[in-house]
Amino acid sequence: MINLRDIQDKRIAVLLSGGVDSSVVLYELVRQGLQPDCYYIKIGPEEDADWDCSSEEDLEMATAVSHKYGCRLEVVDCHHEYWDQVTKYTMDKVRAGMTPNPDVMCNRLIKFGAFHEKRGRDYDLVATGHYAQKEWGAVADSAQEGGGRLPWLCTSPDPVKDQTDFLAQIYGWQLEKALFPIGHMMKDEVRAIAEREHLAPAHRRDSQGICFLGKIDYNEYLRRYLGELAGDVVELETGHVVGHHKGHWFHTIGQRKGLGLGGGPWFVVKKDILQNIIYVSHGYDPSTAYCQHFPIRDFHSINGQMPPCAVAGQPADSVAGQPAGEVTLKIRHTPEFLPASLECIGDGEYMVHAAAPIHGVAPGQFCVIYDARHHHCYGSGEITVSEQGGRL
């Protein structure tokens, strides 16, 4: 929960999205006697009539909420930065057969990146509607001279809405400036406040999928930039061709819906990128669909503190009272935190040893690492295991 004494003399910018969460953020700040400036970040697709984008409605909602509390609202155009940086990242990963997460990079490069360069640099704090919390110097700061003030990204009490996995690639300086006024709340509580205060977006549904797409179909987004490339759909166990696809980038490991195959259910269990072949299986549980031990690379620590890990050939010491290597993790946005241990295999490289096999592990996904109590988030690294079990 935010301590008013810590922020009352700060210059605060609020990022309004037009949704219920950021609207309640503004209410919470105004309720405490603050008068922040509001910003709507424009990152929608190119101006094209055949793209059904909800950004106009989002802006209307953001305008209504800012006017309700007498706060200034400014539109900040980050369209080009988004399409030059986040879209390029997404398309490069998808084309290579990986499973990217554009929302993760949007937070790092746009909401706390491009916005900072354009307007955020003028403020001490940037408030968002993320379900996440921030603590100072809570863990491992004893190693710092004088204790220090070390920012930690911490999970929300609402496991379903927790968004720390989407924030696990931000930089420490971005976290220092971040303010999460509803991060300590449950979603039902936030919705109830919006209804009680008659906020315009109170009854809007939560956005689904990639942050900027709105009502745009994700496959149409991929088709626009990558086109189509016909290939075979092959049953893993028999090697029989059971159908055809229009490009491996339209399919992800673990996918069930949208395959267009009869006699299901079918699940995508493997992809051969070079041959443009999608492998499917009737069962959700073939051994090839699971992975228990996999490497991650380029681990990004949010605040400079690395997760506890065991080093091959060395004694397993404890870190902050926690056995070396014991962590929890996520590889996708789910309420569950999976127990695992880490083994350091290089600079920023780890071998993840999950306590149980994990379904749908795919290269390009971010593996987000938390402490054993899944309270503090260390950061994330990119999974480098291939569907064939090799490394990229």
Summary keywords:
disordered C terminus; globular; 392 residues; single chain; alpha/beta; 8 helices
Beta-strand residue percentage = 25-35%
| Strand neighbour order, sheet with most strands | 12-18-17-16-19-20
Query: What global shape is seen?
Result: globular
Number of helices: 8
Number of beta strands: 20
Describe the model.
This protein has eight helices and 20 strands. The chain has 392 residues and is of the alpha/beta class. A six-stranded antiparallel barrel has the order 12-18-17-16-19-20. α4 packs antiparallel against α5. The longest helix has 17 residues, at 79-95. The protein starts with a helix and ends in a 9-residue tail after the last strand. Residues 138-146, 315-323 and 387-392 have low confidence and may be disordered.
What's the short version?
The chain has 392 residues and is of the alpha/beta class. It has helices at 4-7, 20-31, 55-68, 79-95, 102-118, 172-177, 187-196, 218-226; strands at residues 12-15, 37-42, 73-77, 125-127, 133-136, 151-154, 178-179, 231-235, 241-245, 267-272, 277-281, 290-301, 310-311, 318-319, 322-323, 326-330, 338-346, 349-359, 366-370, 376-383. The protein has a 6-stranded antiparallel barrel. A 5-stranded parallel sheet has the order 3-2-1-4-7, with helices on both faces.
Q: Which helices and strands appear, and what pairs or packs with what?
A:
Elements lengths: L3 H4 L4 E4 L4 H12 L5 E6 L12 H14 L4 E5 L1 H17 L6 H17 L6 E3 L5 E4 L14 E4 L17 H6 E2 L7 H10 L21 H9 L4 E5 L5 E5 L21 E6 L4 E5 L8 E12 L8 E2 L6 E2 L2 E2 L2 E5 L7 E9 L2 E11 L6 E5 L5 E8 L9
Parallel strand pairs: 1-2, 1-4, 2-3, 4-7, 8-11, 13-17
Antiparallel strand pairs: 5-6, 6-20, 8-9, 10-11, 12-18, 12-20, 14-15, 16-17, 16-19, 17-18, 19-20
Helix pairs in contact: 2-7, 4-5
